[in-house]
Structures are given as C-alpha cells and as structure tokens.
Amino acid sequence: MSKLIGLLCNRGLRHPLFCIYVVLLAAVVAWPYVSSAPTSLDVMVGNYLINLESTRDTARNITRSEIPNSAEIAALLEDQADAIEQMDGADDGDLVSLMARWEEDNRELAALGFAYDDIPAYRQAMSQTVLVLNELEDPQLFGSCPEEPALYYFCEVMGSMPWMCWCVSVVVALVALKPLLGRGGLIEQAPLRQWKKLLSLFAALLSLSLGAILVAWMPVTIAAALRNGWGDLAYPIVNVVDTAEREMVIGTTLSSCFLANLALLLLVTALLCGCAVGLLYFLGDNSKILIALLLIITLPLLQGFVGLPAAVARWSPFTYFDTSIFAGVPTYQGFELLRPDGATWETGSAVVGFLGSALLVSTLTAAKLKPRYRL
Questions:
Q1: How far apart are CA 322 and CA 334, in angstroms?
Q2: How many CB atoms lie within 10 A of CB 16?
Q3: 240 touches 119 (CB < 8 A)
Q4: Tens digits of per-residue pLDDT, 33-74?
Q5: Is the Cβ–Cβ distance between 174 and 290 less than 8 Å?
Q6: What is the radius of gyration, based on Cα positions, of the chain?
Q7: Are 206 and 4 in contact (CB under 8 A)?
Q8: Which of 204, 135, 218, 142 is nearest to 174 (CA)?
Q9: pTM, whole model, 2 decimals?
C-alpha cells in the first residue's frame, strides 16, 4: 500500500496543473512580502500622532466645573501629549514604552470618568496589545510585511487570505491523479483490496494537497526567517470578536495562533479529501465529482449568504473553513472577527474531525462490504 501511495504522489507531482497551482499559490503567499505592503502599525501610530492636537486642546479646555477631578484629568492628558511628542524618531523599544505609557494614562482617565474613545472594544484590544508588547524582553514593531518574522507573517497571511486558496489544493490534487483513477489506471491494477486502494488514494490526496501548500510557503518562509528570524512565540495576538450577543476582546499568542491555523488547515483539508474519496467511490470516474467537490468547497459562501442561526452555525463544519476567526489575526489594531455564538476552536476541531473520520470510515466500510463498486 505504501508503494502505491508513493507512485500516486510521484505521478501527481508531475502533472502540469499541479505545478502551475503551486507556483501561483507561492506568488499569492509572497505578494504582500514582495510588494512591501504596510502593516497596521502605520495606522496605529498615526492614530496616536493625530490625537496630539486634540489631546492638548482638551487638556487646556477642561475646567473643574465640567468634570470632577479635572486637574488630575488635565495632567494625564498633558502626559499623553508629552508621550506622543517623544514618539517621533524613537526606536522600537522606546516607541512601545511610550505607547504603553499612553495606554496606562488612558486607563486612568477611564477610571476617572473621562471617555476618550467611542469604541471600547477596539481601545481595549489596542491597549492589551501594547501593554503585552511592552512586557516582552525585546519588543519588535513592523511597519511593513518584509519586516515581519516568519511565523508572524504566516499567521497574518493565513488570517487575511481567502480560505478558497487552500481548499482548491484538494481539487487540483484530484485532477492531477484523475488519469490514474479510471479503468485500467494505476489504482485498479494494484493487487490490493478495494478499501486499501481507497485508503491509499486518501493518503495520496492529503499528501499532495498539504504538500502543495507547504511547498508554496517555503520561499517566503525561508526569506523571512533569514531576514527577521522566526519571531517571539509570546508575541500578543489580540482581536475584537463580534458575536450576536456582544463584542469581546480575545487575547492569545503567536505560538497558539500558529498551531491553531495549522490544526484547522489539516482538519479541513482531510475533510475535503475524505469527501473526494467518497465521491469517487460512489460516483465512479466522472467529471461530476469535481463539480460536486467544488460545490462542497463553496458551501461556506452559501451558508454566509443564507445566514444560519448561531445555534445551527456553531455545529456546521463549513463555519470553520475560515481559520482566522478562531486562530486570530496578527494586528496592532484589534481586527474584528465575526463569529457565531458558541463557536470555538475546540468545537470546530471536534466537528470537522468527527465528520471527516465518519465519512472516511463509512466509505471504507462500504468498500469492504461491497467490493463491486470500482473506481
């Protein structure tokens, strides 16, 4: 069986469409790095600097008759203005400390009843990001994508690129193996029982799909690692999660974000490979299989258009095709993630893993009991 898997993968790797897909995916992944796309740091620092004049004006205009403890509030606002002035030309470490100073003043202002920002969730996300950054031994700020370390860049692109980019790899792998699946093909000629052939096909599809993604990531990952290192695993990933009930701020780390992205990518890819094997077994060698698989991949778009109730959406496997809303997105601003109530990374992993396993086991059992079905 292992020899059959090796032969399938070897033939699939030589298919022109597979090679073209890997090159195109590599270009999509590397584009922000090559194009020197700016990060949210520019917006974040811009917000601080833009607020300089308004902070000064507010501090000057406050009187004791307007706000209790106004002298203390005025002092805090003046301190914020002073911190902003020092940000110009500061290095990474000093810049983070000055931002943290601003945020600490902001928290004290809130405690005194001075509402500085109309969107509390975003202010809290920004504050949490800056304060945790300031606690790191060597805080690093990135103004553009080429300045980001490898793992941070991976998480940012995984969270911002359309999930269709990754899912299409299963369709491409199936097309690359299609010449070997028909009558007289490599699988039919293999001296194995039908369920072992199907298991070999699943392993080959999964290997090719994940292999295409990993190979596409290699150039930019190596470049980022050589240029900026892998990144601090404790780096804060703080997002604003918007559910039907309320907005909440979720904080995690670079290591957790990276592992969650990888786990969901593996589970979703395995689920789609299981669907492909089941379709091949029950429908046979037919072009309708590719259409059916593409429809399965586009179901999350339909689900979003229809708008399932949260109680239903949390148990739908297609909810979890977008890894960003559970793994988070690296940003300084507190990126807004729309998530159904009750949907979590743990729930999604269990749902996708169980459905994929049940699909594959049922197909293999049917193949063992009814070997008349042929690929």
A1: 18
A2: 8
A3: no
A4: 888 777 777 666 666 666 656 666 666 666 545 566 677 887
A5: yes
A6: 26
A7: no
A8: 204
A9: 0.82
